[in-house]
Each structure stands twice: as C-alpha cells, then as structure tokens.
TrEMBL record:
Record keywords, A-Z: Ion transport, Membrane, Porin, Transmembrane, Transmembrane beta strand, Transport
UniProt main location, coarse: membrane
Name by which UniProt lists this protein: Voltage-dependent anion-selective channel protein
Record organism: Camellia sinensis var. sinensis (China tea)
Single GO MF descriptor: voltage-gated monoatomic anion channel activity
Protein function: Forms a channel through the cell membrane that allows diffusion of small hydrophilic molecules. The channel adopts an open conformation at low or zero membrane potential and a closed conformation at potentials above 30-40 mV. The open state has a weak anion selectivity whereas the closed state is cation-selective.
Lineage: superkingdom: Eukaryota
UniProt record similarity statement: Belongs to the eukaryotic mitochondrial porin (TC 1.B.8.1) family.
Length: 276
C-alpha cells in the first residue's frame, strides 16, 4: 500500500474500474514498439459505427521528465509534459492540444504522508480552476473537490468523499453533482494478486428520485484469461473476456445486453493490444 492517502480521484476508482474498464463497444487495435533510446511508439486504430479514427503517439522518459505526444487522423496534436519533484513530493503536468490553443491545462500535485493537494488551471477564456484535497492514511481518507469559474465567481462543481481501504477490500462514498448525487461502492478481492473480485455500487440522484444499483466482478480463469460481468437494476448486462495471447499482448471481447428487451440487437466490442 502507498504511504499516503492518495489523490481525491482515487476515491471510488477501484469500483469504477471494475465496472467500466475493458467494457468496449467498438473495434480497436493498438500496436506498441520500443526503441533502444527509450522512446515508446504507439499506433491506435478505432472503428466505431461506420467511422474510423486513429492516432499515433510517442512517449519519452528521461530521469524525472515524461513527454507524451499524439497525432490523430484530424491532424490534432496532443502533448503532455509530466515532471516530478521540481519541488520535493510534487508532480507537475502540463497539457495542450493544437490547433486548439485554448485547450491547455496546467496541474500541480502535492503528495504528503498524511495529505494530498492538487491545483489545475484550464487555460481557456475565462480560465477555470479545479482544487482537490485529501487527508488521512492509506487505510482511511477524506477528500473534497471544487471547480471555480473566475469570470462569474461561481463554483461549477463541488464533491466530497470518504474511502476505507483494507488489503482485501475497499469501500467508498461520494457526494457529487453539487450534492444532487450520492454514490456508495464496495470492492472485495478474493486473492492477493487481486485478479478475482466482486463489486457492488449504488447511486441515488435526489433531483429525479432515481436509484441505480450495479453488481459485478472479475474472475481469473487461469494466468492468461480473465472474465468480467456486470448487471444493474435497469437490466443492462455487460460481459468481458480478456486473454493474454502472448506476454503483454491482450485480446478483449466485450458485449452488452438489455435483459428487459431481448429483441434488441446486443452490442459487441473487440480490442487487440500488441506489445513487444
């Protein structure tokens, strides 16, 4: 376990990843290569519906600096620069996208043994500022997040959360959407490698009096194959089969069914990630 409480974005992340990660609905292939100079090159092609898109990216790490550049099929260039420990216990992240000059963002993270803070400034006009703070330990953490619009002087969002983490389980509660939504989740791991786990999540939106309850989990069939499934109270059933074809290269097949309308065509997704 880490020495500090983690970032605010880590609260509820384990449950979110179990219920959303790898549940793809399109066709995607990713090929990665690595050069002797430490440059990682990744090419991605995606087909969604009748549209095909893709991008090519390069990533280079030198000491405490990471540079990531991506170019997509529409000639947009996305660049991310990450520098750690400019000041001890900090991480600085600068990102921008060309030709959209207003998409730039600068974020500074400070991680301490008992607290973490982040400040992110979006370089659009007018600029917006996001602030997060988390206090606690690796076992229990309390956090809050707020978004502030400098032009209007109003808060665009505010969220609060708590998480309790143990070696074999994690529970969290998040109050978001300016107090309109509350989400509680629980994850239980069945093995030390966390390959097999069960998750439950309930979300309530007060303005619409709507509840959504989702259960799911993952199970390691063997060292190479993992299956996942999730089902909510609205009848949406999702499944995933992920198999390691060769070391580090994964084939993922996913599907989604509406159990309350079986006459509807189910959705299928396929992803292939090839790494040397």
């Amino acid at each position: 376990m880490s020495k500090g409480p983690g970032l605010f974005s880590d609260i509820g992340k384990k449950a979110k990843d179990l219920l959303t990660k790898d549940y793809v609905s399109d066709q995607k292939i990713t090929v990665s290569t690595y050069s002797d100079t430490g440059v990682a090159i990744t090419s991605t092609a995606v087909k969604k519906g009748g549209l095909s898109t893709g991008d090519v990216g390069a990533q280079y790490k030198f000491k405490n600096t990471l540079i990531d550049v991506k170019v997509d099929t529409e000639a947009n260039i996305s660049t991310t620069l990450i520098i750690t420990d400019i000041v001890p216990s900090t991480k600085t992240i600068a990102s921008f996208k060309l030709p959209d000059y207003s998409s730039g963002k600068l974020e500074v993270q400070y991680l301490h043994h008992h607290a973490t803070f982040t400040t992110a400034v979006a370089l659009n006009q007018p600029p917006t500022v996001d602030l997060t703070a988390t206090v606690g330990t690796p076992t229990i953490a309390f956090g809050a997040e707020a978004g502030y619009e400098t032009a209007s002087g109003k808060f665009t969002k505010y969220t609060a959360g708590i998480s309790v983490t143990k070696p074999d389980s994690c529970a969290s509660i998040l109050l978001g959407d300016k107090g309109d939504t509350i989400r509680a989740s629980y994850v239980h791991n069945f093995d030390q490698l966390k390959m097999s786990a069960a998750v439950g999540e309930i979300t309530r939106r007060f303005s619409t009096n709507e509840n959504t309850f989702t259960v799911g989990g993952s199970y390691a069939v063997d060292n190479l194959t993992v299956v996942k499934a999730k089902l909510n109270n609205h009848g949406k059933l999702g499944t995933v089969l992920q198999h390691e074809l060769i070391p580090k290269s994964l084939l993922t097949i996913s599907s989604e069914f509406d159990t309350k309308a079986l006459d509807k065509t189910p959705r299928f997704g396929l992803a292939l990630a090839l790494k040397p």
